[in-house]
User: Which sequence fits this backbone?
């Protein structure tokens, strides 16, 4: 009898709650994976199509930037059609991608797409940490309709995400500038290092950081509220 009660007390995964998060995660990670693949295969694609090669100056990363911009636009449209809304952070990221990606294509200079994550992460970090200076946990306005937390919980999440975005901005600068210095005469190798870091470094770290916030969501949930799936914020 006690075993049955124990089983009944075990928390069950709420798939209805998780489904939108999973769709959101796939839509946000999709453009990054497409970017990585386009960069990896870019040289072969451009070599096989002289017209494309002329448009993108023969540079795989600039070709991949154009593909990335298209994938980002499709991702935002799919989010609107499937989820009936576009979250603030992916929307801001998408706008920055279009601006800096456009500069990359126009000037044929991959510096702009490389500094895009720095600008975006500093923007997010400054907004979140700046809000705390005015005693405003701005993350609540982004996720408050999904996650219910006590004020202390929102403060901690906002502080941690603000600092995490700051760390990502610094790491991005270190990696792309370091790769350029290490491969001063090989723009392809330098670009590959940065793209690999962006996809296979930043992405897993962000997911891991999000999962590590689950104890905070549980600890500071109102007494009547069950723990939720942790929010995952992916910077494309």
Assistant:
């Amino acid at each position: 009898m006690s075993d049955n009660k124990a089983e009944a007390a075990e928390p069950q995964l709420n798939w209805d709650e998780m489904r939108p998060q999973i769709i959101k995660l796939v839509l946000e990670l999709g453009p990054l994976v497409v970017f990585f693949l386009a960069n990896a295969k870019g040289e072969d694609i451009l070599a096989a199509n002289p017209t494309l090669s002329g448009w993108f100056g023969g540079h795989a990363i600039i070709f991949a930037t154009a593909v990335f911009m298209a994938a980002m636009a499709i991702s935002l449209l799919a989010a609107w059609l499937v989820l009936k809304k576009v979250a603030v952070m992916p929307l801001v990221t998408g706008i920055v991608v279009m601006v800096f990606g456009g500069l990359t294509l126009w000037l044929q200079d991959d510096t702009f797409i490389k500094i895009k994550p720095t600008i975006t992460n500093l923007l997010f970090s400054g907004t979140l940490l700046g809000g705390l200076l005015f005693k405003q946990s701005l993350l609540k306005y982004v996720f408050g309709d999904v996650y219910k937390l006590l004020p202390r919980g929102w403060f901690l999440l906002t502080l941690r995400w603000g600092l995490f975005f700051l760390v990502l901005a610094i790491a991005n600068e270190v990696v792309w500038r370091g790769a350029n210095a290490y491969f001063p005469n090989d723009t392809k190798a330098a670009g590959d290092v940065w793209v690999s870091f962006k996809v296979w470094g930043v992405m897993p770290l962000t997911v891991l950081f999000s999962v590590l916030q689950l104890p905070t969501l549980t600890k500071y949930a109102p007494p009547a509220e069950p723990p939720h799936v942790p929010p995952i914020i992916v910077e494309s």
The chain has one domain: 17-219. Confidence is low (pLDDT under 50) at residues 1-13. The radius of gyration is 20 Å.
